[in-house]
């Protein structure tokens, strides 16, 4: 089938395009731009890019498109069927395969990639779709078709398909969370914290997206949920589900449950893990102690550091055992081969060249994620001068709803570099006050550097990043190529 994807460079749409090509379809796509990380990879996956619509038999419409998009209107006028990304995945790829969705406000991408890594290493031949590019040696593609059919020589069950279960809406004509359309049989729920205020104006509307996901799990399905998140506990308790619920909870090196304190539960927490402190800057693995019920399974390591990544690893390991019956110790050992995902604490400089600066790139934009990222960096670089470079860009990040949250989120940093807000259309009374944030951070003893524009960020960082500094760039967008500029300049 000839398939055209509108908005093909998106974090989810680009891997879908690669999947459809691998499934035997003739795939092309269009977009306003073809920015990294996904845009340049499309041709390597066999996906053609073009400006016009061409001659497709089916059009997949990304959720960035409005109903008046020229190509949407053209497809409608020509009578070409238009479907959303979740419908395309369900109809053309997963079909009857057991879908495992990784859901939650934080940690979806890393946990999805790690779960795919563990299932693939166990020989289950899973498929997957991840909204980020896994780093080698875990794998270089954010998608895989996996074994899509049963074996002809033996009654082999269908291989699972792991998908990042985004709660954002599906398309302008399908205003429901994408994860609903994936129809998962198994789900992980990592965390819940009000986000995406552009489509969820209040907490209750946001919580309803996750309740709806839980209530759609089938009889005999499985939900692995984070007992350390009070809102996860609340929403799971409010949902009516036929699925089995299994709880997990990870603690940081000080014994505090991640992310925000142990919630009250009537049921036991079956899967727990304790972060073990890193020994120094050169540690490759984040160690953790794993427990199943009251029994210790042993000490293991995962190739991404921080308490939040211990929680992510714990959730993935729990699913491999609870849903697929894989041996715990053998599976947990495979986590050491996982190296994370691009733009999730991705290291670009290790301090051994040029000015001796360590440079990380991270997707964090919500205060909770900023805090988790900086705490992880501080745990690895105990005595370093940490320079946090943050772009408030998303619809949520640019709003005053998290003014207080940002005041504490930069706690582990020594220096904070702030460009202007990434959105100029937010009403003044709803806007994040950067002047106030600067005053609050200075009152905590931090140095704050204000860049007049994104283009001036590299120069601003250059003035404060002395030898031995650790620079952490955080944005949920391209950030004007700041990371590439800093990588070259600091070398």
Please name the defining characteristics of this protein.
Rossmann fold; UDP-N-acetylmuramoyl-L-alanine:D-glutamate ligase; Protein-Tyrosine Phosphatase, Chain A; 3 domains; six-stranded mixed sheet; 14 helices
CATH superfamily of the largest domain: Mur-like, catalytic domain
Number of helical regions? 14
Radius of gyration: 22 Å
Q: What count of structural domains?
A: 3
Model description:
Strand 10 (169-171) and strand 11 (174-177) form a beta hairpin. The model has no long low-confidence stretch (mean pLDDT 92). The chain has 491 residues and is an alpha/beta fold. It folds into 3 domains: 2-88, 3-Layer(aba) Sandwich (Rossmann fold), CATH 3.40.50; 95-337, UDP-N-acetylmuramoyl-L-alanine:D-glutamate ligase, CATH 3.40.1190.10; 346-490, Alpha-Beta Complex (Protein-Tyrosine Phosphatase, Chain A), CATH 3.90.190. The protein has helices at residues 13-22, 70-77, 85-94, 108-121, 178-182, 203-215, 230-238, 307-324, 328-334, 367-380, 403-409, 434-443, 457-464, 482-490, and strands spanning 2-6, 26-30, 48-49, 58-61, 81-84, 99-103, 127-129, 143-144, 161-164, 169-171, 174-177, 186-189, 222-226, 244-251, 257-258, 271-275, 286-292, 295-302, 346-350, 358-362, 386-390, 415-418, 447-450, 470-474. It starts with a strand and ends with a helix. The chain is globular. Helix 4 (108-121) crosses helix 8, helix 10 (367-380) runs parallel beside helix 11 and helix 13 (457-464) runs parallel beside helix 14.
């Amino acid at each position: 089938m000839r398939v055209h994807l509108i908005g093909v460079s998106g974090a989810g749409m680009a891997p879908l395009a690669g999947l459809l090509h691998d499934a035997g379809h003739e795939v092309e796509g269009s977009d306003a731009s073809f920015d990294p990380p996904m845009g340049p990879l499309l041709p390597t996956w066999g996906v053609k890019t073009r400006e016009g619509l061409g001659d497709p038999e089916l059009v997949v419409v990304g959720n960035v498109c409005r109903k008046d998009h020229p190509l949407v209107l053209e497809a409608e006028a020509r009578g070409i069927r238009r479907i959303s990304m979740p419908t395309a995945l369900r109809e053309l790829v997963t079909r009857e395969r057991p879908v495992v969705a990784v859901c939650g406000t934080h940690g979806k991408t890393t946990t999805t990639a790690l779960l795919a890594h563990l299932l693939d290493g166990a020989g289950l031949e899973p498929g997957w779709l991840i909204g980020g590019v896994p780093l080698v040696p875990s794998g270089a593609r954010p998608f895989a078709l996996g074994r899509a059919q049963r074996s002809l020589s033996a009654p082999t069950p269908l291989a699972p398909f792991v998908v990042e279960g985004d709660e954002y809406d599906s398309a302008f004509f399908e205003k429901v969370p994408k994860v609903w359309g994936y129809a998962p049989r198994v789900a992980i729920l990592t965390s819940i914290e009000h986000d995406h205020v552009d489509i969820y104006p209040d907490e209750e509307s946001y919580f309803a997206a996750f309740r709806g996901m839980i209530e759609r799990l089938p009889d005999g399905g499985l939900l692995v949920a984070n007992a350390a998140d009070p809102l996860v506990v609340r929403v799971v308790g409010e949902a009516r589900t036929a699925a089995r619920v299994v709880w997990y909870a990870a603690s940081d090196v000080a014994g505090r449950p991640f992310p925000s304190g142990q919630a009250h539960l009537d049921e036991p927490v079956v899967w727990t893990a304790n972060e073990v402190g890193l020994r120094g800057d050169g540690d490759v693995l984040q160690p953790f102690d794993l427990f199943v019920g009251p029994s210790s399974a042993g000490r293991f390591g995962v190739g991404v550091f921080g308490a939040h990544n211990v929680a992510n690893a714990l959730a993935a390991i729990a699913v491999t055992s609870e849903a697929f019956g894989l041996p715990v110790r053998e599976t947990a050992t495979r986590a050491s081969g996982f190296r994370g995902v691009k733009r999730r604490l991705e290291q670009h400089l290790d301090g051994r060249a040029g000015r001796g600066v360590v440079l990380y790139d991270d997707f964090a934009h919500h205060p909770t994620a900023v805090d988790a990222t900086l705490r992880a960096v501080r745990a690895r670089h105990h005595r370093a001068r940490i320079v946090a470079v943050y772009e408030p860009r998303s619809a949520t990040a640019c709003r005053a709803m998290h003014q207080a949250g940002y005041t504490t989120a930069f706690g582990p940093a020594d220096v904070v570099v702030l460009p202007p807000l990434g959105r100029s259309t937010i009403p003044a009374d709803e806007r994040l006050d950067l002047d106030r944030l600067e005053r609050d951070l200075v009152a905590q003893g931090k140095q704050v550097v204000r860049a007049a524009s994104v283009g001036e960020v590299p120069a601003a960082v250059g003035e404060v990043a002395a030898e031995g500094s650790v620079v952490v760039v955080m944005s949920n967008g391209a950030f004007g190529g700041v990371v590439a500029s800093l990588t070259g300049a600091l070398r």
